[in-house]
Amino acid sequence: MSLQGTKYLSQCDVDNYDRNGYVIVEDAFYPAEVEAMIHAIEAGSSLGPHTRVRTDAEGKKTKLAIWHQLGNDIWAAASTSPNLVNNVRILLRQEIAFFHGKVMLKEAQTGGAWEWHQDYGYWYDQGFLYPRMLSAFVALDRATRENGCLSVLKGSHKIGRLNHVQTGTQFGIEHDRMALVEPLFECVYCELAPGSILFFDCNLLHSSDANKSDHHRRSFITAYTALGNPQIKGQLCADEVCQSAAPNAILEAARLVPET
Ligand SMILES: O=C(O)CCC(=O)C(=O)O
């Protein structure tokens, strides 16, 4: 479905999300907003101190920048964009808190894979009691099979949380269990145009291949929890209502909107 302005997910989209574990919203961000985010990545600005490297099973590296606090920059504006947070409220059917945001830098020819995993495989260990959580993957470059778009196992969120083991410097599903699970579900390659969003349940099995193309695959992923999801304290905290930014906040943060 396409947002075309300020439309939100319909009941049919929510039903599809419940059944399949994911839903795609095409063209949710305007090209100028996507360009502003790409520019922010290329300029380095606020991402530098948050950037880490993760290694896949074959030793290939992929970079990501992750933050758990909303600052006062383009990434805070993007993470709280109405297209994201109001649709997350619709999908979770309740008030939400921001958990974290990431910029994924899967570089041309070198960017590594992400092994099959569930986000709740990580987040359970980070102390969240209920899997009432989800991620939103926003394509900044076109995401294709060749450059390592996200693959999802449709409907696999219904299997519940599986154990994760270390593979490279990532965590993934145990090999023997994955061999059993994979043939049970349709694998969908989520090819996305820049500015499109893939919302997916925290128990949906997903992975992505290495980038074998000459084009970067940069994306922006934000994670949210239902507000009030009990959490073991002393860990990463997500317990404040996530406010929605103004519709033009991304362009304002990039100083592309003239002051009046
Ligand atoms: O960016 C990717 O290719 C995979 C990211 C991912 O699986 C995740 O953040 O959970």
Mind sketching the topology for me?
Layout: H1 11-20, E1 22-25, H2 31-43, E2 51-55, E3 61-67, H3 74-79, H4 82-92, E4 96-106, E5 114-117, H5 119-125, E6 133-139, E7 150-153, E8 164-167, E9 170-173, H6 175-181, E10 187-190, E11 197-201, E12 206-208, E13 217-226, H7 249-253
Antiparallel strand pairs: 1-11, 2-3, 3-4, 4-13, 5-12, 6-11, 6-13, 7-10, 7-12, 8-9
The structure holds 2-oxoglutaric acid.
Counting copies of identical and different chains, the oligomeric state is single chain
Count of runs of 4 or more consecutive helical residues: 7
The CATH architecture term is Sandwich
How many DSSP-defined strands?
13
H and E order = HEHEEHHEEHEEEEHEEEEH
Mean pLDDT level = 92
What ranges have pLDDT less than 50 throughout 5 or more consecutive residues? none
Strand-residue fraction?
Answer: 25-35%
Tell me which ligands are bound.
2-oxoglutaric acid
Largest sheet: spatial strand order? 1-11-6-13-4-3-2
Q: Quote the distance from N terminus to C terminus.
A: 35 Å
Silhouette: globular
CATH class: Mainly Beta
Category by helix and strand content = alpha+beta
Helix content: 10-25%
CATH homolog superfamily? q2cbj1_9rhob like domain
CATH topology: Jelly Rolls
Rg computed from alpha carbons, rounded to a whole number of angstroms = 17 Å
Q: Total domains, how many? A: 1
